[in-house]
């Protein structure tokens, strides 16, 4: 990361810390001089951030899943603690609607509640895009297996089943035939019910959408006064269909520049049509046979370590950009005119169902951009699911940098030279 830049000790309320892998974001905010007040459910891991000196205060609030009720609870808690906030922010998808309501109630900078709610619901995203005359895949809400059959009769195959309020592609599956609908419906339902990522407390219907072919990209945007002042594009590797679990990406992309530019143009036009005016947004889309198509719009910074990737490649700190936006400060971006390096991100999944016996990862050294980062998601000895269960268990995530894509891929492959070892479970 670049040198720390102070924001004058501003008090920033973080609504919902998300999973522990987001800790590095809060460490960066503290480096930039923000006084963090963390707001989350009782017993949440983020309480430790105070003891570690990353956050100044941690406040417990009840979470129902209803953004209006949860925003009211956050406001009551802040008032009871006497917190005078200079800005409100979240980096966790499930708490974006709550954060927008809190910021609006306090008169602090943020995007409109309507824009945020439109992006949060994948169905509303499709409806808003269609009203704006933008190219939009067909989509229908599905509340039962009967409704799934009815939707499939209209949308056809291939198509995609997904949760309306999802995250990290959890419960997203490609459907290729009428005969497969019952099995896929119940597989998705079971996956969502067992997930620790999706929040069902306020309900969560399924959608059936038209399948989009082509190469997928992540588009990270910075808006200021309604205009896009920076964009970064990462090229995703083919997903592990029939699920859409990510396998990796590289930044910058090596796809056709004109196709990438058209996709960025569509992403910017879409978020502007939705009413977004500020902050860091994460848009996912494809360069498809029919032209550019968006998969989803996220009203927050991208997950994983995307801010470190963008900083390494372009010299732009997305955490600082979001912090400035939430405080109403002007952006101070100075992106490199050319990519400074290439970063490769690879995800490792369990190759079979059973118990993880070994996860050998070779020690290599990045040659540019950032140090090798290995985020372990599963410990040796834990039970794991393989591809036979459609949704495989993630074991680890690897980031490595080099001067060019070929070398970065080679280094990443060296890290994963020896495959994970999974042993079958004994019969019950």
Q: How would you portray this structure in words?
A:
This protein has 428 residues and is an alpha+beta fold. The chain has four domains: 11-108, Rossmann fold (3-Layer(aba) Sandwich); 138-210, Dna Ligase, domain 1; 213-340, ATP-grasp fold, B domain (D-amino Acid Aminotransferase, Chain A, domain 1); 341-428, Aldehyde Oxidoreductase, domain 3 (Alpha-Beta Complex). Helix content is 30%, strand content 25%. It contains twelve helices and 19 strands. The protein has helices spanning 23-31, 48-51, 67-81, 96-106, 113-120, 122-131, 145-155, 181-194, 257-274, 306-314, 318-326, 405-415, and strands at 11-15, 35-40, 57-60, 87-89, 139-142, 159-163, 173-175, 206-210, 215-224, 227-236, 248-251, 279-288, 291-298, 342-349, 354-358, 373-376, 383-384, 394-402, 421-423. The strands form four sheets. An eight-stranded antiparallel beta sheet has the order 13-12-9-10-11-14-18-16. Strands 3-2-1-4 form a four-stranded parallel beta sheet, sandwiched between helices. The mean pLDDT is 93.
């Amino acid at each position: 990361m670049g040198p720390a830049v102070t924001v004058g000790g501003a008090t920033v309320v973080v609504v919902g810390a998300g999973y522990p892998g987001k800790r590095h974001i809060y460490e960066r905010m503290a480096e930039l001089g923000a006084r963090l007040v963390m707001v989350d459910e009782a017993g949440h891991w983020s309480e430790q951030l105070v003891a570690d000196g990353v956050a100044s205060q941690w406040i417990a609030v009840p979470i129902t899943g209803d953004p209006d009720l949860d925003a009211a609870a956050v406001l009551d808690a802040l008032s009871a603690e006497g917190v005078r906030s200079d800005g409100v922010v979240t980096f966790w998808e499930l708490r974006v609607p709550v954060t927008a309501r809190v910021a609006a109630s306090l008169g602090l900078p943020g995007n409109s509640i309507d824009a945020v709610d439109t992006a949060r619901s994948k169905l509303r995203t499709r409806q808003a895009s269609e009203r704006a005359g933008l190219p939009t895949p067909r989509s229908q809400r599905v509340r039962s297996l009967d409704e799934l059959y009815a939707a499939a009769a209209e949308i056809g195959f291939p198509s995609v089943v997904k949760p309306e309020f999802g995250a990290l592609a959890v419960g997203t599956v490609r459907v290729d035939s009428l005969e497969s609908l019952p099995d896929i419906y119940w597989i998705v339902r079971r996956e969502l019910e067992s997930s620790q990522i999706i929040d069902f407390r306020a309900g969560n219907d399924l959608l059936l959408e038209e399948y989009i072919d082509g190469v997928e990209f992540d588009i990270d945007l910075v808006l200021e006064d309604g205009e896009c002042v920076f964009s970064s594009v990462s090229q995703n590797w083919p997903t592990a269909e029939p699920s859409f679990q990510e396998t990796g990406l590289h930044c910058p992309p090596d796809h056709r520049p004109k196709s990438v530019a058209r996709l960025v143009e569509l992403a910017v036009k879409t978020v502007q049509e939705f009413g977004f005016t500020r902050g860091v947004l994460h848009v996912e889309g494809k360069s498809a046979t029919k032209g550019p198509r968006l998969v989803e719009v996220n009203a927050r910074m991208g997950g994983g370590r995307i801010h470190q990737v963008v900083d390494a490649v372009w010299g732009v700190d997305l955490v600082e950009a979001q912090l400035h936006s939430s405080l109403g400060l002007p952006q101070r971006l100075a992106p490199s005119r050319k990519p400074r390096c290439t970063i490769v991100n690879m995800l490792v999944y369990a190759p079979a169902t059973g118990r993880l016996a070994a996860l050998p990862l070779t020690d290599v050294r990045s040659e540019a951009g950032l140090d090798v980062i290995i985020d372990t998601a599963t410990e040796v000895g834990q039970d794991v699911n393989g591809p036979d269960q459609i949704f495989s268990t993630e074991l680890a995530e690897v980031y490595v940098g080099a001067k060019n894509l070929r070398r970065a891929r080679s280094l990443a492959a060296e890290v994963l030279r020896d495959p994970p070892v999974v042993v079958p479970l004994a019969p019950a």
